[in-house]
Each structure stands twice: as structure tokens, then as C-alpha cells.
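Example 3.2
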Amino acid sequence: MFKKVLSFIMLSALIGCSTILFRIGKPRELEIVEAIKKGKVEAKTEGAGIEEVNMELKRLARYELSINIPVGTYFISHGSAQNMVGTTEETVILQDDDWHSISISVACANRAKDIPSEEETFDIQRSPHQAELKRLMPALRKANVDFAVQQAAVWIVTDDANYEDLGILEGRYAWQLISTRMIREYEAALAMKICDEAGIDITQKAIWRDRKDILKELEDEDLTNWLEQKAQQ
């Protein structure tokens, strides 16, 4: 009887050690929203302009974590600023109980609201448009386009923006005295094409109704041919 009890204790100890070694050797993988919901991590966020959100993460679990921040992660403003949507996938390894900082590349998801300042904080959620955004972001990375085109494509998905709506994004070069529209016909048409290549039905988006007006001022031959052919399908 004593031998059986001893064997059981030794087996339990071995199983326990195996579990500990497994956790040391391989971090437990969790998606950020799930990790927060389950109380495994604490997260702090703050605004950093129109292209980034700053995040700090601290583990609450007693084992190593690998936290995935997927494309399409939604940052919901606590104030009157724009909500933001993650445009790249990030992974943070939490091996200790310290705070760990990371900057998340984002685009804004609410055209008419203010750009987030450093005082702005956010809740972290899954985007209602996450499925389309997951298809869109790899296509944007492959196309290697500038921020104006990226923002146009995101707004087409998240806000169902038309061409007039896209005009809210303004900027200026150092030699310019006033800001001008950043998303013009070329940027809008290229964003439409990238959405289409990502498997998003661009003909069901509001901007499709503006295709004739975009074509009138579009000078790029390849985009003109694509838009004309798409309209004939």
C-alpha cells in the first residue's frame, strides 16, 4: 500500500513538473481581447496621432504569455476622438510582471471625429468589420501604398465612405501654406482596386456610385482601364 501511495505521489510530481516545464518552454498564446476578458493581462492605451496607438501590457497570470494583437483590433475612444483600427498584426511576449510598451500601427475609423491626442485612452475590442479588414490588410501591405491610400481603403470598409467623405483627410507639404485634400481620384481609385483584389465587393460600397466622377479626373491609365472594365462586369 505504501509503495502505491509513493508511486502516485512521484507520478503526480512528474506530471506537475512537466506542466511547469511546458509553460516555461512555450508561452501560452492568447488574443488580446480574450486575454483582457479572462483577466490574464492588464492593458493601457493612449493616442499618438492618426497613424499609431501606444499600448502598455502587463501580465496578471503567473506564467509566460504570448499576446497576439490581430489586424482589425478596434480601439474605442473614451472621449470624442476617432476610434482606431489596427492595420498590422503584433505579438508581445510577457515573461515577467513589468509593463511592456508597443506602438500599434492604425488607421482611423470615424472620419468626422478629432484625431486622438496623447490624453486620449481607448477600450480594446474586436472590430465589427474584422473579417473584411483581415482580407484587406495583406493586400495593402502587398501593394506597398502610402498612408492616404491605406486610410481610404479602411474608410471604405469601416465607414462605407464615398468620395466626398474621403476628402476630410487633409495635409500639406512644407512649402504649402494651407492644407489640401490628400485622397484624390488616384488614391480613391487605387483603394477601390485594392479592396476588390482583397475579395471585398466594391460594387456594394457607397464609393462605387462615384466611379463616373472619379473616372473623369483620373489620369492613371491602368486604374482607368481597371475601373472601366469593372463597371462593365
